[in-house]
Design goal:
Oligomer: single chain
Low-confidence stretches: none
Number of helices: 5
Order of helices and strands: HEEHEHEHEHE
Number of strands: 6
Helix content: 25-40%
CATH architecture: 3-Layer(aba) Sandwich
Number of domains: 1
Shape: globular
CATH superfamily: HprK N-terminal domain-like
Strand order of the largest sheet: 1-5-4-3-2-6
CATH topology: Udp-n-acetylmuramoylalanyl-d-glutamate--2,6- Diaminopimelate Ligase, Chain: A, domain 1
Radius of gyration: 14 Å
CATH class: Alpha Beta
Largest sheet: 6 strands, mixed
Mean pLDDT: 92
Distance between the termini: 37 Å
Length: about 120
């Protein structure tokens, strides 16, 4: 799947990075808690969120993310979009909720980031 495919599936609007929408993507994660994203994501991926603050950009930069998807029609301010473009991110906005966006992308073939959980005594 490419980011262009995601735009089509989500009926989304490209806010910045139009020239990079042919970038392939293989996994996605969804969270409004950037600490969870930092703890569980370890590969280049797509982040689906409802947050439009600078923490999202810092997280994307630290993890070398390819694309930010803002759910619920959220649109970050111009300063955030300028910084995202400088970081090489594609930023899109969809009117779908985060839950619906995840479902639509999953149905279209995009999978979640694999997470390895530590083994517990219950699993033995």
């Amino acid at each position: 799947m490419t980011i262009a495919d995601m735009v089509r599936v989500l009926h989304a609007r490209v806010l910045c990075g139009q020239e990079r929408i042919d970038t392939p993507v293989y996994t996605a994660c969804c969270s409004d808690l950037m600490s969870d994203v930092l703890a569980f994501v370890n590969e280049k991926t797509v982040l689906i969120t409802g947050l439009t603050n600078p923490h999202v950009l810092r997280t994307a930069d630290m993890l070398d993310l390819k694309c930010l998807v803002f759910a619920r029609g959220k649109v970050p301010g111009e300063e955030i979009l300028e910084q995202a473009d400088e970081q090489g991110l594609v930023v899109i906005s969809t009117k779908a909720t985060a839950f619906t966006a995840c479902g639509l992308l999953y149905e279209a073939g995009l999978r979640g980031v694999p997470i390895e959980w530590p083994e517990s005594e219950d699993s033995q």
